Amino acid sequence: MSFHQFLLILRARYIAALAVLFVTVAAVTGYSLWLPKQYSASTAIVLDVKSVDPVTGTSSQSMAGAGYMATQLDIINSDRTARAVVKNLKLEGSSSVQEMWLDATKGRGQLIDWLSSLLQKNLDVKPSRESSVININYTATDPAFAATVANAFAQAYIDVNLDLRLAPARQYAAFFEEQTKTARLQVEQAQKALSDYQQKNGIVSADDRLDYETAKLNDTSSQLTGVQAQTTDSQSKRQSSKADTIAEVMQNPLVNGLKTDIARLEARLVESSGNLGKNHPQTLRSQSELATLKSQLEQETAKVTSSIETTYQVGKQREQQLSNALSTQKGRVLMLNKQRDELIVLRRELDSAQRLFDSMSARASQSNVESKTDQTNIAVLNPAIAPTKASSPRVFLNVLVSVFIGTLLGIGLALALELRRRRVRSDEDLLDALGIPMLGQISSANRVMKPSRLGARA
Protein backbone atom coordinates (compact mmCIF):
# COMPACT_ATOMS: atom_id res chain seq x y z
CA MET A 1 0.00 0.00 0.00
CA SER A 2 1.42 3.32 -1.12
CA PHE A 3 1.09 6.59 0.69
CA HIS A 4 -1.35 7.79 -2.00
CA GLN A 5 -3.61 4.80 -1.40
CA PHE A 6 -3.36 5.45 2.35
CA LEU A 7 -4.52 9.02 1.89
CA LEU A 8 -7.41 7.94 -0.33
CA ILE A 9 -8.54 5.45 2.32
CA LEU A 10 -8.41 8.12 5.03
CA ARG A 11 -10.39 10.49 2.81
CA ALA A 12 -13.02 7.86 2.22
CA ARG A 13 -13.20 6.74 5.90
CA TYR A 14 -12.61 10.04 7.60
CA ILE A 15 -16.01 10.04 9.26
CA ALA A 16 -15.28 6.80 11.14
CA ALA A 17 -11.79 8.01 12.07
CA LEU A 18 -13.12 11.32 13.34
CA ALA A 19 -15.82 9.52 15.28
CA VAL A 20 -13.27 7.32 17.01
CA LEU A 21 -11.10 10.36 17.73
CA PHE A 22 -14.05 12.27 19.16
CA VAL A 23 -15.22 9.36 21.30
CA THR A 24 -11.71 8.77 22.63
CA VAL A 25 -11.11 12.42 23.47
CA ALA A 26 -14.54 12.74 25.02
CA ALA A 27 -14.11 9.59 27.09
CA VAL A 28 -10.67 10.55 28.35
CA THR A 29 -11.77 14.10 29.07
CA GLY A 30 -14.83 12.94 30.93
CA TYR A 31 -12.88 10.36 32.90
CA SER A 32 -10.22 12.95 33.79
CA LEU A 33 -12.88 15.37 34.98
CA TRP A 34 -14.61 12.58 36.90
CA LEU A 35 -11.48 11.48 38.76
CA PRO A 36 -11.00 13.08 42.18
CA LYS A 37 -8.18 15.56 42.47
CA GLN A 38 -4.93 14.22 43.89
CA TYR A 39 -2.40 16.37 45.73
CA SER A 40 1.27 15.49 46.05
CA ALA A 41 3.38 16.77 48.95
CA SER A 42 7.18 16.36 48.99
CA THR A 43 9.68 16.29 51.84
CA ALA A 44 13.38 16.62 51.11
CA ILE A 45 15.87 15.00 53.47
CA VAL A 46 19.64 15.20 53.29
CA LEU A 47 22.14 12.51 54.34
CA ASP A 48 25.58 13.44 55.62
CA VAL A 49 27.62 10.53 54.26
CA LYS A 50 30.82 11.96 55.75
CA SER A 51 29.53 12.47 59.28
CA VAL A 52 31.83 11.76 62.22
CA ASP A 53 30.69 9.58 65.10
CA PRO A 54 30.42 11.92 68.13
CA VAL A 55 31.36 9.06 70.49
CA THR A 56 34.31 7.41 68.75
CA GLY A 57 35.35 10.40 66.64
CA THR A 58 35.72 8.27 63.53
CA SER A 59 33.92 8.49 60.19
CA SER A 60 32.21 5.47 58.65
CA GLN A 61 33.56 4.56 55.23
CA SER A 62 30.53 2.39 54.44
CA MET A 63 28.35 5.49 53.97
CA ALA A 64 30.27 6.48 50.87
CA GLY A 65 29.54 3.20 49.10
CA ALA A 66 27.41 2.93 45.98
CA GLY A 67 24.80 0.80 47.71
CA TYR A 68 24.30 3.15 50.66
CA MET A 69 21.71 5.37 48.96
CA ALA A 70 19.86 2.33 47.60
CA THR A 71 19.73 0.90 51.11
CA GLN A 72 18.27 4.13 52.46
CA LEU A 73 15.57 4.08 49.76
CA ASP A 74 14.67 0.53 50.72
CA ILE A 75 14.43 1.56 54.38
CA ILE A 76 12.02 4.37 53.54
CA ASN A 77 9.88 2.01 51.44
CA SER A 78 10.00 -0.75 54.06
CA ASP A 79 7.03 -2.05 56.03
CA ARG A 80 8.74 -1.10 59.28
CA THR A 81 8.83 2.56 58.32
CA ALA A 82 5.20 2.44 57.17
CA ARG A 83 4.14 0.87 60.48
CA ALA A 84 6.02 3.61 62.32
CA VAL A 85 4.05 6.21 60.31
CA VAL A 86 0.77 4.53 61.25
CA LYS A 87 1.75 4.55 64.93
CA ASN A 88 3.01 8.14 64.88
CA LEU A 89 -0.16 9.42 63.19
CA LYS A 90 -2.35 7.18 65.42
CA LEU A 91 -4.37 6.05 62.41
CA GLU A 92 -5.37 2.79 64.10
CA GLY A 93 -7.59 4.63 66.57
CA SER A 94 -9.80 6.21 63.89
CA SER A 95 -13.24 4.61 63.71
CA SER A 96 -13.63 5.50 60.04
CA VAL A 97 -10.34 3.77 59.24
CA GLN A 98 -11.44 0.68 61.14
CA GLU A 99 -14.71 0.60 59.19
CA MET A 100 -12.80 0.88 55.91
CA TRP A 101 -10.53 -1.98 57.02
CA LEU A 102 -13.50 -4.17 57.92
CA ASP A 103 -15.18 -3.47 54.58
CA ALA A 104 -11.97 -4.17 52.63
CA THR A 105 -10.66 -7.23 54.48
CA LYS A 106 -13.70 -8.55 56.37
CA GLY A 107 -11.59 -8.42 59.53
CA ARG A 108 -8.78 -10.63 58.20
CA GLY A 109 -5.21 -9.77 59.05
CA GLN A 110 -3.92 -6.87 61.09
CA LEU A 111 -5.15 -3.32 60.77
CA ILE A 112 -1.64 -1.88 60.97
CA ASP A 113 -0.44 -4.09 58.10
CA TRP A 114 -3.38 -3.06 55.94
CA LEU A 115 -2.81 0.62 56.67
CA SER A 116 0.95 0.38 56.04
CA SER A 117 0.44 -1.30 52.67
CA LEU A 118 -2.21 1.30 51.81
CA LEU A 119 0.20 4.14 52.62
CA GLN A 120 3.00 2.53 50.62
CA LYS A 121 0.89 2.51 47.45
CA ASN A 122 0.85 6.31 47.29
CA LEU A 123 4.46 6.74 48.37
CA ASP A 124 7.13 7.71 45.86
CA VAL A 125 10.76 8.01 46.95
CA LYS A 126 13.32 9.43 44.56
CA PRO A 127 16.97 10.30 45.16
CA SER A 128 18.43 13.45 43.67
CA ARG A 129 21.04 12.90 41.02
CA GLU A 130 24.66 13.29 42.13
CA SER A 131 23.68 14.47 45.63
CA SER A 132 22.76 13.09 49.04
CA VAL A 133 19.21 14.44 48.99
CA ILE A 134 16.18 12.13 48.96
CA ASN A 135 12.69 13.36 48.06
CA ILE A 136 9.76 11.66 49.76
CA ASN A 137 6.54 12.25 47.81
CA TYR A 138 3.09 11.26 48.99
CA THR A 139 -0.14 11.63 47.05
CA ALA A 140 -3.61 11.95 48.59
CA THR A 141 -6.97 13.57 47.93
CA ASP A 142 -6.48 15.87 50.93
CA PRO A 143 -3.50 18.25 50.54
CA ALA A 144 -3.05 18.62 54.31
CA PHE A 145 -3.08 14.84 54.80
CA ALA A 146 -0.55 14.41 51.98
CA ALA A 147 1.85 16.86 53.64
CA THR A 148 1.31 15.26 57.04
CA VAL A 149 2.04 11.76 55.76
CA ALA A 150 5.12 12.93 53.80
CA ASN A 151 6.55 14.56 56.92
CA ALA A 152 5.59 11.50 58.97
CA PHE A 153 7.50 9.24 56.58
CA ALA A 154 10.55 11.49 56.89
CA GLN A 155 10.43 11.40 60.69
CA ALA A 156 9.72 7.67 60.76
CA TYR A 157 12.69 7.07 58.46
CA ILE A 158 14.94 9.05 60.81
CA ASP A 159 13.65 7.10 63.82
CA VAL A 160 14.00 3.72 62.11
CA ASN A 161 17.47 4.56 60.80
CA LEU A 162 18.56 5.65 64.28
CA ASP A 163 17.06 2.52 65.82
CA LEU A 164 18.82 0.30 63.26
CA ARG A 165 22.12 1.95 64.09
CA LEU A 166 21.60 1.80 67.86
CA ALA A 167 20.32 -1.78 67.99
CA PRO A 168 23.83 -3.31 67.64
CA ALA A 169 25.18 -0.78 70.14
CA ARG A 170 22.51 -1.82 72.66
CA GLN A 171 23.40 -5.47 72.13
CA TYR A 172 27.09 -4.67 72.54
CA ALA A 173 26.36 -2.65 75.66
CA ALA A 174 24.47 -5.56 77.24
CA PHE A 175 27.19 -8.01 76.21
CA PHE A 176 30.06 -5.90 77.53
CA GLU A 177 28.12 -5.14 80.71
CA GLU A 178 27.86 -8.87 81.38
CA GLN A 179 31.53 -9.36 80.51
CA THR A 180 32.44 -6.51 82.86
CA LYS A 181 30.63 -8.21 85.73
CA THR A 182 32.47 -11.46 85.00
CA ALA A 183 35.82 -9.63 84.79
CA ARG A 184 35.10 -7.82 88.07
CA LEU A 185 34.38 -11.15 89.73
CA GLN A 186 37.66 -12.54 88.40
CA VAL A 187 39.54 -9.53 89.79
CA GLU A 188 37.93 -10.00 93.19
CA GLN A 189 38.76 -13.71 93.20
CA ALA A 190 42.39 -13.07 92.17
CA GLN A 191 42.73 -10.34 94.82
CA LYS A 192 41.26 -12.62 97.48
CA ALA A 193 43.59 -15.47 96.50
CA LEU A 194 46.59 -13.14 96.74
CA SER A 195 45.53 -11.74 100.13
CA ASP A 196 44.77 -15.19 101.55
CA TYR A 197 48.15 -16.48 100.44
CA GLN A 198 49.96 -13.53 102.01
CA GLN A 199 48.06 -13.91 105.28
CA LYS A 200 48.57 -17.66 105.37
CA ASN A 201 52.33 -17.36 104.91
CA GLY A 202 52.78 -14.12 106.82
CA ILE A 203 54.20 -12.29 103.82
CA VAL A 204 54.39 -8.52 104.06
CA SER A 205 57.10 -7.86 101.52
CA ALA A 206 58.41 -10.96 99.81
CA ASP A 207 61.39 -9.25 98.22
CA ASP A 208 62.65 -7.59 101.44
CA ARG A 209 62.21 -10.77 103.45
CA LEU A 210 64.00 -12.82 100.81
CA ASP A 211 66.88 -10.34 100.71
CA TYR A 212 67.23 -10.50 104.50
CA GLU A 213 67.16 -14.29 104.60
CA THR A 214 69.60 -14.51 101.69
CA ALA A 215 72.02 -12.17 103.46
CA LYS A 216 71.66 -14.24 106.61
CA LEU A 217 72.39 -17.40 104.61
CA ASN A 218 75.50 -15.85 103.14
CA ASP A 219 76.68 -14.71 106.60
CA THR A 220 76.09 -18.19 108.07
CA SER A 221 77.98 -19.74 105.18
CA SER A 222 80.90 -17.36 105.78
CA GLN A 223 80.96 -18.18 109.49
CA LEU A 224 80.89 -21.89 108.75
CA THR A 225 83.79 -21.53 106.36
CA GLY A 226 85.82 -19.66 109.00
CA VAL A 227 85.05 -22.18 111.73
CA GLN A 228 85.92 -25.07 109.43
CA ALA A 229 89.29 -23.43 108.72
CA GLN A 230 89.96 -23.03 112.45
CA THR A 231 88.90 -26.61 113.18
CA THR A 232 91.14 -27.93 110.45
CA ASP A 233 94.05 -25.95 111.85
CA SER A 234 93.35 -27.20 115.41
CA GLN A 235 93.10 -30.76 114.17
CA SER A 236 96.48 -30.55 112.44
CA LYS A 237 98.05 -29.09 115.60
CA ARG A 238 96.58 -31.72 117.91
CA GLN A 239 97.90 -34.47 115.64
CA SER A 240 101.42 -33.05 115.70
CA SER A 241 103.99 -35.41 117.42
CA LYS A 242 106.19 -32.61 118.77
CA ALA A 243 104.39 -30.27 121.10
CA ASP A 244 107.24 -27.79 121.25
CA THR A 245 106.91 -27.12 117.55
CA ILE A 246 103.34 -25.90 117.84
CA ALA A 247 103.01 -22.17 117.18
CA GLU A 248 101.03 -21.57 120.37
CA VAL A 249 103.75 -23.25 122.43
CA MET A 250 106.54 -21.46 120.66
CA GLN A 251 104.82 -18.12 121.02
CA ASN A 252 103.87 -18.58 124.68
CA PRO A 253 105.91 -16.05 126.73
CA LEU A 254 105.89 -18.18 129.89
CA VAL A 255 107.19 -21.19 127.98
CA ASN A 256 109.83 -19.02 126.31
CA GLY A 257 110.85 -17.63 129.74
CA LEU A 258 111.12 -21.11 131.20
CA LYS A 259 113.21 -22.24 128.23
CA THR A 260 115.51 -19.25 128.74
CA ASP A 261 115.88 -20.00 132.45
CA ILE A 262 116.53 -23.67 131.70
CA ALA A 263 119.19 -22.79 129.15
CA ARG A 264 120.90 -20.40 131.55
CA LEU A 265 120.70 -22.88 134.42
CA GLU A 266 122.10 -25.66 132.23
CA ALA A 267 125.04 -23.43 131.32
CA ARG A 268 125.67 -22.69 134.98
CA LEU A 269 125.36 -26.39 135.84
CA VAL A 270 127.97 -27.28 133.23
CA GLU A 271 130.27 -24.62 134.61
CA SER A 272 129.67 -25.70 138.21
CA SER A 273 130.21 -29.35 137.40
CA GLY A 274 133.47 -28.53 135.74
CA ASN A 275 134.73 -26.29 138.53
CA LEU A 276 133.23 -27.74 141.63
CA GLY A 277 132.38 -31.26 140.65
CA LYS A 278 129.12 -33.14 140.35
CA ASN A 279 128.66 -33.74 144.05
CA HIS A 280 129.19 -30.19 145.11
CA PRO A 281 126.18 -28.78 146.94
CA GLN A 282 125.92 -25.92 144.47
CA THR A 283 125.91 -28.32 141.57
CA LEU A 284 123.26 -30.43 143.25
CA ARG A 285 121.16 -27.34 143.92
CA SER A 286 121.44 -26.32 140.29
CA GLN A 287 120.36 -29.77 139.19
CA SER A 288 117.36 -29.57 141.50
CA GLU A 289 116.41 -26.14 140.14
CA LEU A 290 116.85 -27.40 136.57
CA ALA A 291 114.55 -30.34 137.24
CA THR A 292 111.96 -27.98 138.68
CA LEU A 293 112.12 -25.69 135.64
CA LYS A 294 111.77 -28.59 133.23
CA SER A 295 108.75 -29.82 135.15
CA GLN A 296 107.18 -26.38 134.94
CA LEU A 297 107.96 -26.30 131.16
CA GLU A 298 106.24 -29.62 130.64
CA GLN A 299 103.25 -28.47 132.64
CA GLU A 300 102.95 -25.23 130.63
CA THR A 301 103.38 -27.10 127.36
CA ALA A 302 100.68 -29.54 128.42
CA LYS A 303 98.39 -26.62 129.23
CA VAL A 304 98.93 -25.15 125.76
CA THR A 305 98.29 -28.45 123.98
CA SER A 306 95.24 -28.98 126.18
CA SER A 307 93.88 -25.59 125.09
CA ILE A 308 94.41 -26.62 121.47
CA GLU A 309 92.35 -29.77 122.09
CA THR A 310 89.65 -27.69 123.75
CA THR A 311 89.66 -25.26 120.82
CA TYR A 312 89.32 -28.17 118.44
CA GLN A 313 86.34 -29.66 120.29
CA VAL A 314 84.64 -26.27 120.54
CA GLY A 315 85.31 -25.68 116.85
CA LYS A 316 83.75 -29.01 115.94
CA GLN A 317 80.64 -28.20 117.95
CA ARG A 318 80.44 -24.73 116.42
CA GLU A 319 80.93 -26.22 112.98
CA GLN A 320 78.06 -28.66 113.58
CA GLN A 321 75.80 -25.87 114.82
CA LEU A 322 76.61 -23.63 111.87
CA SER A 323 76.13 -26.53 109.46
CA ASN A 324 72.67 -27.19 110.91
CA ALA A 325 71.86 -23.49 110.85
CA LEU A 326 73.05 -23.30 107.24
CA SER A 327 70.82 -26.22 106.22
CA THR A 328 67.86 -24.63 108.01
CA GLN A 329 68.56 -21.27 106.37
CA LYS A 330 68.85 -22.88 102.95
CA GLY A 331 65.47 -24.51 103.44
CA ARG A 332 64.00 -21.17 104.52
CA VAL A 333 65.45 -19.38 101.49
CA LEU A 334 64.17 -22.09 99.15
CA MET A 335 60.76 -21.86 100.77
CA LEU A 336 60.81 -18.07 100.35
CA ASN A 337 61.80 -18.46 96.69
CA LYS A 338 58.89 -20.83 96.18
CA GLN A 339 56.53 -18.44 97.97
CA ARG A 340 57.82 -15.56 95.89
CA ASP A 341 57.26 -17.50 92.66
CA GLU A 342 53.75 -18.42 93.75
CA LEU A 343 53.16 -14.82 94.77
CA ILE A 344 54.38 -13.62 91.36
CA VAL A 345 51.95 -16.01 89.65
CA LEU A 346 49.08 -14.73 91.80
CA ARG A 347 50.04 -11.12 91.10
CA ARG A 348 50.23 -11.80 87.36
CA GLU A 349 46.78 -13.38 87.48
CA LEU A 350 45.54 -10.32 89.35
CA ASP A 351 47.18 -7.94 86.83
CA SER A 352 45.75 -9.92 83.90
CA ALA A 353 42.27 -9.89 85.44
CA GLN A 354 42.61 -6.17 86.17
CA ARG A 355 43.64 -5.37 82.59
CA LEU A 356 40.72 -7.43 81.27
CA PHE A 357 38.35 -5.63 83.63
CA ASP A 358 39.67 -2.21 82.59
CA SER A 359 39.31 -3.10 78.90
CA MET A 360 35.80 -4.47 79.32
CA SER A 361 34.77 -1.54 81.51
CA ALA A 362 36.00 0.98 78.94
CA ARG A 363 34.30 -0.84 76.07
CA ALA A 364 31.09 -1.18 78.09
CA SER A 365 31.10 2.55 78.85
CA GLN A 366 31.64 3.41 75.18
CA SER A 367 28.90 1.00 74.03
CA ASN A 368 26.56 2.36 76.69
CA VAL A 369 27.12 5.91 75.47
CA GLU A 370 26.67 4.82 71.85
CA SER A 371 23.41 3.04 72.69
CA LYS A 372 21.97 6.20 74.27
CA THR A 373 22.98 8.75 71.66
CA ASP A 374 20.23 10.39 69.61
CA GLN A 375 22.49 11.89 66.96
CA THR A 376 21.91 10.93 63.35
CA ASN A 377 23.38 11.84 59.98
CA ILE A 378 19.91 12.55 58.52
CA ALA A 379 18.18 15.92 58.56
CA VAL A 380 15.02 17.30 57.01
CA LEU A 381 16.04 19.78 54.33
CA ASN A 382 12.59 20.95 53.20
CA PRO A 383 9.51 19.83 55.15
CA ALA A 384 6.36 19.15 53.16
CA ILE A 385 3.64 21.78 53.05
CA ALA A 386 0.06 21.40 51.89
CA PRO A 387 0.04 21.84 48.08
CA THR A 388 -2.32 24.39 46.57
CA LYS A 389 -2.51 22.79 43.13
CA ALA A 390 -3.60 19.28 42.33
CA SER A 391 -0.98 16.98 40.87
CA SER A 392 -3.59 14.80 39.14
CA PRO A 393 -5.57 14.38 37.07
CA ARG A 394 -3.80 16.46 34.42
CA VAL A 395 -6.71 17.19 32.09
CA PHE A 396 -4.77 19.05 29.42
CA LEU A 397 -2.07 16.40 29.23
CA ASN A 398 -4.65 13.64 29.19
CA VAL A 399 -6.52 15.40 26.34
CA LEU A 400 -3.31 15.69 24.32
CA VAL A 401 -2.59 12.02 24.88
CA SER A 402 -6.19 11.11 24.01
CA VAL A 403 -5.93 13.08 20.77
CA PHE A 404 -2.81 11.14 19.84
CA ILE A 405 -4.30 7.80 20.84
CA GLY A 406 -7.70 8.64 19.22
CA THR A 407 -5.93 9.53 16.00
CA LEU A 408 -4.10 6.23 15.99
CA LEU A 409 -7.29 4.34 16.80
CA GLY A 410 -9.23 6.20 14.07
CA ILE A 411 -6.56 5.44 11.50
CA GLY A 412 -6.48 1.85 12.62
CA LEU A 413 -10.28 1.56 12.34
CA ALA A 414 -10.26 3.10 8.83
CA LEU A 415 -7.61 0.66 7.68
CA ALA A 416 -9.47 -2.26 9.28
CA LEU A 417 -12.74 -1.33 7.51
CA GLU A 418 -10.93 -0.91 4.24
CA LEU A 419 -9.15 -4.23 4.49
CA ARG A 420 -12.39 -5.95 5.41
CA ARG A 421 -14.07 -4.72 2.24
CA ARG A 422 -11.56 -3.53 -0.25
CA ARG A 423 -12.63 -1.01 -2.90
CA VAL A 424 -11.00 0.38 -6.00
CA ARG A 425 -10.14 3.97 -5.28
CA SER A 426 -7.28 4.52 -7.74
CA ASP A 427 -5.60 3.02 -10.75
CA GLU A 428 -3.09 1.41 -8.39
CA ASP A 429 -5.92 -0.49 -6.65
CA LEU A 430 -7.21 -1.73 -10.03
CA LEU A 431 -3.72 -2.75 -11.07
CA ASP A 432 -3.23 -4.64 -7.76
CA ALA A 433 -6.62 -6.34 -8.11
CA LEU A 434 -6.46 -7.40 -11.83
CA GLY A 435 -2.76 -7.57 -12.41
CA ILE A 436 -3.11 -6.25 -16.03
CA PRO A 437 -1.86 -2.98 -17.46
CA MET A 438 -4.32 -0.09 -17.64
CA LEU A 439 -4.56 1.87 -20.83
CA GLY A 440 -6.19 4.98 -19.32
CA GLN A 441 -8.71 6.31 -16.85
CA ILE A 442 -11.70 8.59 -16.86
CA SER A 443 -11.50 10.88 -13.91
CA SER A 444 -14.79 12.78 -14.52
CA ALA A 445 -17.20 13.67 -17.32
CA ASN A 446 -15.92 17.18 -17.89
CA ARG A 447 -12.32 16.06 -18.22
CA VAL A 448 -10.72 14.67 -21.35
CA MET A 449 -9.27 11.21 -21.23
CA LYS A 450 -5.54 11.07 -20.81
CA PRO A 451 -3.23 8.09 -21.06
CA SER A 452 -2.26 6.62 -17.75
CA ARG A 453 1.24 6.30 -16.49
CA LEU A 454 1.10 2.56 -16.88
CA GLY A 455 -0.27 2.81 -20.35
CA ALA A 456 2.50 5.12 -21.32
CA ARG A 457 4.94 2.59 -20.04
CA ALA A 458 3.32 -0.09 -22.14
Automatic annotation (TrEMBL):
Keyword hit for Zinc: no
Residue ranges of domain Tyrosine-protein kinase G-rich in the record: 342-416
GO cellular component terms, A-Z: plasma membrane
Location of the region described as Disordered in the Swiss-Prot/TrEMBL record: 221-244
Segments of skewed composition (Polar residues): 221-238
Alphabetized UniProt keyword annotations: Membrane, Transmembrane, Transmembrane helix
Transmembrane intervals: 12-34, 395-417
Pfam families per UniProt: GNVR
Molecular function GO terms recorded: protein tyrosine kinase activity
InterPro entries from the UniProt entry: Bact_polysacc_biosynth/exp (IPR050445), Chain_len_reg_EpsF (IPR017468), GNVR (IPR032807)
PANTHER family: FERRIC ENTEROBACTIN TRANSPORT PROTEIN FEPE (PTHR32309:SF13), TYROSINE-PROTEIN KINASE (PTHR32309)
Full protein name: Chain length determinant protein EpsF
Protein encoded by which gene: epsF
